[in-house]
Please model this.
Amino acid sequence: MKTDAAAIQAFNTVLIKNINISNKLSLLQKVDQLFKMGDSHNCKQKELHHQFKKQQSMTDLSEEKPKIYVKAVVLIFSVLLSTLFGALLFAQNLKEIGKKKEIFNIFLFAIFWNTLLLKILGMIIPNPLVVYGITNTVGGLLLIFPFWNYYLSEIVGFDKRTIWLPLIFFIVLVGGFTAFLLLYHHR
Model:
């Protein structure tokens, strides 16, 4: 009887750690009933286990983790393409967590940042490639640090969103631009 009580207690502990608070009381009451029933606990334990699995599958469905682009992806695509493209990926993250109202602010920042910094640095630095690199790198860093901390800091658990779509877009864009330059250069 003592080992059966220990097994039920262990099951109880696992059960409490894996369910939400509203269901804990009813399940605790059922586990307590198992202690009082003694020998007939095997059937009740199976019933309780079945109910637990059913509730766990229901909570697993309702608590899906958001799929977001990680900081490194936002930064890399900001540097390679532009701050505006990094803002697009960041906006996808905001959309995924339900902060659609903040998307406008991110795009406003990216447009303002690119326009202002490209003009200012263009007057100071004669090389447009360096100006473009500085603008995009600093813009990407701003997206992944202050903006990320302000808008996405509450996200603890998430799934990484795959980078295939942005990567394909990048390859098509760079490939198309390269093909255009090669064809234009040969004329």
